[in-house]
Specification:
Rna Polymerase Sigma Factor, Chain: A, Arc Repressor Mutant, subunit A, RNA polymerase sigma-70 factor, RNA_pol_sigma70_r4_t2
Length: 178
């Protein structure tokens, strides 16, 4: 590797000479790995960065400048790739924090809204006439059938249906107004 000039290295990579590229990789990848580890503090991620840098070197071979040392290009590309990875991780962490905050806020809001709705429901229920409320509660809260309600309260089944209809209309009206 040491016997190739920078111009020969650039020409070899531009001409897609695999032997030159492999020699460049073997010679420079350890130092690029060290740079990446210093920035990222993660060996696996550093390996990924080095692979990306050399892949981009191969893909962008026609853009190489023979006046600039390949080692400098690789070092700058490694640093930039590391910085991009760090920025991406920071954005990901910021997004995750924002999502947690948003989720917590929405959950708190929904819980509060639910409490308010329950309070409004109970207030509307209290406004119903006593017999109407009793029929509604027996039907909706206790799960009794209209026949059971009629028998227990000693009223006709038609009266049970009338009370249920009245209760539902008044509750719906009261809750829609609030």
């Amino acid at each position: 590797m040491m016997h190739l000039s920078n111009a020969e290295i650039v020409a070899g990579i531009r001409n897609r000479d695999k032997a030159v590229f492999e020699a460049v990789f073997k010679h420079f990848s350890p130092s690029m790995y060290n740079i990446a580890v210093r920035y990222l503090k993660d060996e696996d991620e550093a390996n990924d960065v080095v692979q990306d840098v050399f892949l981009n070197l191969w893909r962008g071979a026609t853009l190489l400048d023979e006046r600039s040392p390949v080692q400098h290009y690789l070092a700058r590309a490694t640093v930039n790739t590391c910085l991009n990875a760090i920025k991406k991780e920071q954005r990901k962490q910021t997004y995750t924090r924002e999502q947690l905050f948003t989720t917590a806020s929405v959950t708190d809001y929904l819980a509060l809204e639910h409490k308010e709705l329950i309070a409004q429901y109970h207030a509307a229920l209290e406004k119903l006439p006593e017999q109407c409320r009793r029929v509604f509660e027996m039907s909706r809260l206790k799960g009794h059938s209209p026949t059971e309600i009629a028998t227990q309260l000693n009223i006709s089944i038609n009266t049970v249906y009338a009370h249920l209809t009245t209760a539902l209309k008044k509750l719906r009206l009261s809750l829609n107004q609030q």
